[in-house]
Write a structure and sequence with these properties.
This protein is an alpha+beta fold and 186 residues long. Helix content is 23%, strand content 34%. Strands 3-1-9-10 form a 4-stranded antiparallel beta sheet, covered by helices on one side. A 4-stranded antiparallel beta sheet has the order 2-7-6-5, covered by helices on one side. A two-stranded antiparallel sheet has the order 4-8. The longest helix has 18 residues. Its EC number is 3.1.4.58.
């Protein structure tokens, strides 16, 4: 699905899996408990996502081409399970991820990155670290709480843009494409 996009100056684009409302609410509640104890900047509940491919700034003249290319990518639906919290000290981020590798999600991200690399929207393929950023600017989280597992089947991927404002980063979904249902073999 193609949408006309007018990007604010300095907007950055990325492909992502957006979290369903109930999953986002659950993670936001957990993050709210951590921020209440340790500080940091809580991500907005409606902005929680898992980035598949970060593209950076894209010239407006190439946005239509980008969306047309994304529409040609056939990717399967994937089950997503988030069951652990982690903290990256280098950028002060609290994130939710999975205790076990997520090979189907990594394969989805790798395929999408490969297509974008070939078309010149990326200059390199970066290792995929499946996570959902929940808090930023967290100096020291202390002991992290256990995360009750949350799961969903991702049925679509989105092209989103972000830009900085006086309230932090703002996210907007530009377009979305369905992921293909996996038919069980009998």
């Amino acid at each position: 699905m193609s949408v006309e996009v007018v990007a604010p100056a300095g907007a950055r684009f990325f492909f992502a899996l957006w979290l369903p409302t109930e999953v986002a609410h659950s993670l936001h509640t957990v993050a709210g408990g951590v921020v209440g104890r340790c500080g940091g900047r809580l991500m907005r509940e409606d902005a929680l996502h898992m980035t598949l491919a970060f593209l950076g700034e894209i010239p407006e003249r190439r946005l239509e081409e980008l969306q047309a290319l994304a529409a040609t990518v056939s990717l399967p639906q994937v089950k997503v399970r988030l069951d652990r919290l982690g903290f990256w000290n280098h950028n002060h981020v609290l994130w939710a991820g999975s205790k076990n590798a997520l090979p189907e999600i990594a394969a989805l991200a790798d395929k999408l990155q490969a297509v974008m690399l070939k078309a010149g929207f990326l200059t390199e393929v970066k290792p995929f670290a499946p996570h959902v950023t929940m808090l930023r600017k967290l100096l020291h989280p202390g002991a992290l709480p256990d995360l009750a597992p949350v799961e969903w089947t991702a049925a679509e991927f989105v092209l989103a843009k972000s830009w900085r404002s006086d309230r932090g980063s703002t996210y907007e979904t530009v377009a979305h494409w369905p992921l293909q249902e996996v038919v069980a073999q009998v």
